[in-house]
Task: structure prediction
Amino acid sequence: MKRVLALLLLTAGIVSAEDDLVPFKDGATWTYDVTSTVDTMGVRVAQKGTATWTCNGKEGESTVLVLTEVLERKGRVRDLKLWVRSSPNSIEVSRTSGEELWLLPADLKTKNKSVKVKVGGADIAVETVVGDEEEVETPAGKFKAVKVTAQVSVAMTKTERSVWYAPGVGAVKAVSRVVAGPARVEKELLLRKFEKEPPKAHAPDGEPGKKPGDGGKHPKGEDSDDDDDDDE
Result:
């Protein structure tokens, strides 16, 4: 009995170790609703958009994350890359291709973390503080998430940033406040959808089990006939 109990405890530990704080798996995607407000000498301009993070393979031991942000008035504004790693209790960010650090490094055990991150080609000291767990409501649902905050200065720009991490999901909310001369920019990202697995290859809709949400059943009817015609 003792051996069985020990084996069960060991197995539980292995499963827990595989449940990273942020599940960086190739092809996984996070889609966010974006709200951005720019205040320049009292003139405020607000706009909405979307942002999508995608795991795009590995370089060494780091996963490459690609951010595509689309704002309603500017269209596609940029692609940003981050090099990241994660464990059950931490996330590491080694560098970013631009001057924004949207994901913050954090260690849930030590609470405070001071690291060097290469931001836009420069080594920047980043000190993060891990707060308490909070309930965060997003378009994707409610999550128990840990708030991580940091202040980052790059060139003449100062940024106060907060990220809420839900274990096993990743960043469910992010808020930034940027001061650059007379301009102040506030931005909020709220998780709309998280896909842990990469999208499956397209299959004919007429085949059983291929339509999402139909429980593997595809009733015969007009729609099925149309799909069969398309597949010919």
Remarks:
- The longest strand covers residues 43-59.
- The first helix runs from residue 2 to 18.
- The chain has a mean pLDDT of 79.
- The chain has one domain: 17-195.
